[in-house]
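job 3f2a | input accepted
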Amino acid sequence: MMRFFRHAKTGGRERGWSLLETAVAIVVVGIGIALFLKVQKMSSRNSTTNSRILMAGKAIESFLEDTRISIAKDTLTNWPPVSKTVAAAAPNFIKIVSTVGPAYSPKDNALVANVVRMDIVTSWTTPYADTLKVTTYVSKRF
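job 3f2a | predicted structure (142 res):
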């Protein structure tokens, strides 16, 4: 069985897109592209932030390891560690500020002998200003 379809007569003209349909399509595609670019920019910024935090964490780890090594080499002259500031330098331009203070027991708030509290703050200004702070305890005997 064959089916025949009847087509409406168009008077010999082909139908295409009207000017309004074309303008709407351009606006929709433009909004899509704008949203895509915004997501890309946010992703790039988050990637940069994560990279800086990782570099700052590694700088803190290296600073703390150097402090512990110097204490282990000579506990008489290098204990207790002193508060320091390490200026921002290439390639990461991360500044390190360590503050050394007494350590108190969380149980009874008594002073703990041969242990100090170190607050290490890293900061950077490129591509924008931010900081990372770590608090740790360092012992004379470890």
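job 3f2a | The chain has one domain: 19-139.
job 3f2a | closed
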